[in-house]
Amino acid sequence: MDISRLRDLLEKVQKGQLEIDQALGHLRSLPYEDLGFARVDHHRALRQGFPEVIFCPGKTPEQVAEIAFRLSERSSMVLATRASQEVYEAVVKLCPQAEYRTMARAIVLEQGPLPPPSGRVLVVSAGTSDLPVAEEAAVCAEAMGRQVTRLYDVGVAGLHRLLDRQEALWAAQAIIVVAGMEGALASVVGGMVDKPVIAVPTSVGYGANFGGLSALLTMLNSCASGIGVVNIDNGFGAAALAHAILRVAENQ
C-alpha cells in the first residue's frame, strides 16, 4: 500500500465514507520494510495485538540491532528473545533505552507512556533450573502488557510448596506452567484450577529426559483438562498464547 492510498483511506474516514474498522482492515495488509537481510513487519500489532518479536539466534548482533532500531521507530515496545550480552551491546548503541533481562535472555525497549498492565498471568516453575524459560515467559508476558505474578520452585517433588500457594493459582486468569524432568507439574496444576493452563516443557533433566521430550510427552498425555502445550523451552510461545487468550476475553 503506497502513501497515496493511505491518504485516500484517511480522507474517507474523515468524510464518514469509511468506518474505522473497515480502514483498519485495509491497513492490516500494509507492506513490510525491506532491509535486505530481513523484511520487518511493522503492522503485526494491528493484526495480532503485539509488534513483531526478534528471535536472535542465527542473526548477527548488527542485524538484531538494525531490526530493533527500525521497529523502535514505529512502535512503543520492542522485544528480542534469546539474546546474548553481545547482542544487547549492539542493540543499546542504536537504542539507548533498551534493557537486558539476563535470566530471561531478553531485550526489552519501552518508549513513551504505556497503558497499565491488565489480565492476571501466573508463571509457575517446577524448579530453579527451569527459571530461564520461566523468566522468558514472564518477561514476554509483561512486555505484552500483562500483569504477571511469579511462583517458582514448586515442583511435585515437594508438593506442599504448591499447596501453600493455592490462592495465587485461583487468582490468575491464565497460568503458564514450566517444568522439566518428567513434566508432571502441569497436570497437577491443571487438576486444581478452572483457568487455561499453558504447559511449557523444558530441556532440563537427566539422560532419559531426552532434551525435554519426556516432559513434552507427559504434558501432551495429561489427564487433566484445559491444558495446552507449547514446544520445548518455548517461554515466548506460552506468553503469546496467554496474551491471545486474554485479548479474546477482553474483546468480548
Write up this protein:
The protein is α/β, with parallel strands linked by helices and 252 residues long. Helices cover 40% and strands 19% of the residues. The strands form 3 sheets. Strands 8-7-9-10-11 form a 5-stranded parallel beta sheet. The longest helix is centred in the last third of the chain and has 17 residues.
Q: Quote the beta fraction.
A: 15-25%
Average the pLDDT over all residues and give the rounded result: 88
Number of helices: 11
Query: What is the ordering of alpha helices and beta strands?
Result: HHEEHEHEHEEEHEHHEHEHEH
Shape: globular
Profile the largest sheet: 5 strands, parallel
CA gyration radius, whole angstroms: 20 Å
Helix content: 40-55%
Helix/strand-derived class? alpha/beta
Euclidean distance between termini CA atoms: 31 Å
Low-confidence stretches: none
Number of strands: 11
Topology:
Layout: H1 3-14, H2 20-27, E1 33-34, E2 39-40, H3 44-48, E3 54-55, H4 61-72, E4 77-81, H5 85-94, E5 99-101, E6 106-110, E7 118-125, H6 131-143, E8 146-151, H7 160-163, H8 166-171, E9 174-179, H9 185-190, E10 197-201, H10 213-220, E11 227-229, H11 235-251
Parallel strand pairs: 3-4, 7-8, 7-9, 9-10, 10-11
Antiparallel strand pairs: 1-2, 4-6, 5-6
